[in-house]
Amino acid sequence: MRPDFHLRLAADLAAREAAGLYRRLRIAQATRPGRIAIDGRELIDFGSNDYLGLAQHPRLIESLVGAATSGVGARASHLLGGHRAEHQALEHALADWLGYPRALVFSTGYMAAIGTLAALLGRHDLCVQDRLNHACLLDGARLAGARLQRYAHADVAAAARLLAAYPERRALMVTDSVFSMDGDCAPLAALAQLAARENAWLMVDEAHGLGVLGPQGRGACAAAGLGSEQVPILMGTFGKALGGFGAVIAGSETLIESLINGARSFVYTTALPPALARAMCVAVELARSADPLRVYVMDLIARFRAGVDASGLRMLASDTPIQAVIAGGAQAAVAWGARLAEQGFFCPAVRPPTVPEGSARLRISLTAAHSHEDVDRLLYALTRLERP
Ligand SMILES: *Cc1c(COP(=O)(O)O)cnc(C)c1O
User: Fold this and answer.
1) FRET partner for 292 with CA separation of 20 to 30 A, picked from 65, 152, 173, 372?
2) What is the pLDDT of residues 278-305, one digit of tens each?
3) Which atom of ligand 1 is nearest to the CA of 134?
4) Which of ligand 1's atoms lies nearest the C-alpha of 180?
5) What's the 3-state SS for the chain?
6) What is the pLDDT of residues 247-280, one digit of tens each?
7) Which residues contact ligand 1 via a Cβ below 6 A?
């Protein structure tokens, strides 16, 4: 008899539950900046990617609500009547901010990544990626059917060996700028040198760098002195430090025109709501001029790291708002998260397969919405956790 899907799904879920890997949705509510209510109880929010606290910025809310009075949906895809002046204005603002010839807005970072990679790469092309890259980058290369080769995290020499093994293939190197679960930065300058030497292209996903790092918050590439010449494909997302939703690919005229014509996740989907595009223009403006907030967040990071260092807890090296405190086993990480929640802190536990086996952790993110006192209270609670 033909096997049945329901039985397989139920067995998979039971196995997940037994391994402490079951994921459950909980209702979250953004109460005030830096706080989150989970199932109705307010906690200090150390789980958000809203690094500059823009998601609740009065000017951003005002711009979205104001722009929405003329309608909500874009009513069509970009190529069939959905591309509005608001989208174009946002693309111009992004290109200007990032210092690229052109920019193209996508509905999400996930879609920007898979659309771009699948449009660019063919079956005979080589795609070399960091092992810890975000899922959307790996999925994009797989969707393209390209020869995907992954190197050990941040190991430029290993990347060089992979490229050297296929000298006759067109090659794209892809990396996160700030790794989303570890918080460390890719060795961008060395990767750019390697790309130049190998005549390969470099694509950098700045989801966690944009708005946070570099001059005017232009990201980790800008901080490393790299521009459109060294990084022909720059990806950014609006759901993190920009406090909104959506994503961008910045690149040359030729690249962007190719994506408009060939990126299926751009062509075959409804355009972003125009009011949201308008609000994201305001977010770009706010992020660009947010140097004082960036300085403040860097100060929180130093304060937090000094505190954890003193406690003897295991922490990954990171100079960014993403701070990983390692528990090891999945169950231990979940127990820590639950203990902290009891004490008023939301610190999500991240488990395999999102992170490698044995490195389950609390992923703590520090934002401009936190006070020094918030951080000090968290440190006090962390130091008193039961060690596995
Ligand atoms: C969040 C994230 C994405 C996906 O962006 P969305 O707009 O949320 O789809 C892509 N890459 C990295 C590194 C991310 O952290």
Assistant:
1) 65
2) 999 999 999 999 999 999 999 999 999 9
3) 13
4) 15
5) CCCCHHHHHHHHHHHHHHCCCCCCCCCEEECCCCEEEECCEEEEECCCCCCCCHHHCHHHHHHHHHHHCCCCCCCCEHHHCCCCHHHHHHHHHHHHHHCCCEEEEECCHHHHHHHHHHHHCCCCCEEEEECCCCHHHHHHHHHHCCEEEEECCCCHHHHHHHHHCCCCCCEEEEEECECCCCCCECCHHHHHHHHHHHCCEEEEECCCCCCCCCHHHCCHHHHCCCCCCCCCEEEEECCCCCCCCCEEEEECHHHHHHHHHHCHHHHCCECCCHHHHHHHHHHHHHHHCCHHHHHHHHHHHHHHHHHHHHHCCCECCCCCCEEEEEEECHHHHHHHHHHHHHCCEECCEECCCCCCCCCEEEEEECCCCCCHHHHHHHHHHHHCCCCC
6) 999 999 999 999 999 999 999 999 999 999 999 9
7) 108-110, 134, 136, 176, 180, 205, 207-208, 237, 239, 247
